[in-house]
């Protein structure tokens, strides 16, 4: 059992932080992350420890604070746009800003002695290395989402083909909405004939563009994620295809059965083609085998010629 004073000591820092928080709320306007960093620094200072304590320089502290706020903003953005997926469209600005913030930490050497090296003290002075861990997490998430695929080369904004795709996606959804609304007014609720007919054009365009993008992508790069388009585009197509074929049941069965019949009849004919070709081939071989015999027996040939002449 721990003696009761132990509990008090454990609670003290929390109490101090709470009080500092209250005090800071009354102080001049500053970003919360920067405030906290300054408070922690002042706490160490007032504890009267030696001067060469590895404390962050002010400009280092503000770099760290900027990174903290950048990660909070990016995390919030990713979470809010998780479903339906709008990560790449909505969060690329946040991601780019965070990359810049991480970069300026990594490049910041600070202006004083080696022990006060800003990058070193933020990125590598402890086992956890939380700033590196966070940055890695965001990099991996961004990579897995394959957002680079739907952004411009310099990643400032969406690429043209992505804009075009999203525009068609919006049109498709709008078309579905319109035709469903009309339907509930004057038709039975589960008759989607109108949707299939009126939105076929838009849907077909969307589907074609998606297939085109996929083909371009496969040809393009050989990276690990090159089989995928960016998640926003994939998810939008997934949603639309599911609506079209499952909810509205617009995929006509005949358009599915034609390739099936074609493929199965091709396979059915394969044995026939095989036997026919092997038959013809063996016939050809016989001829080749017989021919040298005749040449060999030159005498016979002469005989035959004599006979026929
Ligand atoms: C170094 O930092 C101090 C305060 O942190 C600042 O006054 C000074 O201008 C800086 N020097 C350079 C060369 O950046
Ligand atoms: C994250 O990616 C950026 C750009 O690709 C890179 O500069 C940075 O070092 C990466 N972060 C980590 C922790 O590897
Ligand atoms: C994209 O940028 C890379 C360098 O970052 C460059 O090599 C490549 O040619 C660019 N591609 C296009 C289409 O601009
Ligand atoms: C993208 O579209 C803009 C205008 O809409 C155009 O200026 C630009 O050249 C296009 N880029 C590509 C790569 O097609
Ligand atoms: C389509 O885009 C317009 C404006 O760009 C927007 O007002 C509308 O809500 C979008 N529709 C859908 C279904 O996302
Ligand atoms: C659906 O509505 C169309 C008219 O818009 C009608 O011709 C068709 O017979 C209806 N189908 C069913 C299954 O009710
Ligand atoms: C949609 O249009 C295509 C031709 O553009 C046609 O082959 C297909 O049967 C149509 N589908 C529906 C559901 O009307
Ligand atoms: C499409 O949706 C299904 C089920 O909703 C899901 O299992 C699948 O992973 C999705 N595909 C993509 C490419 O997101
Ligand atoms: C979809 O439509 C086909 C005929 O076009 C019908 O045979 C099938 O039962 C329908 N499926 C659903 C889930 O409505």
UniProtKB/TrEMBL annotation:
GO CC term, one of those recorded: cytosol
Superkingdom of origin: Eukaryota
Annotated signal sequence range: 1-25
Membrane spanning residue stretches: 258-280
UniProt keyword list: Membrane, Signal, Transmembrane, Transmembrane helix
Pfam families: OSTMP1
Protein name listed in UniProt: OSTM1 protein
Originating organism: Cettia cetti
Taxonomy of the source species: Eukaryota, Metazoa, Chordata, Craniata, Vertebrata
Gene that this polypeptide is encoded by: Ostm1
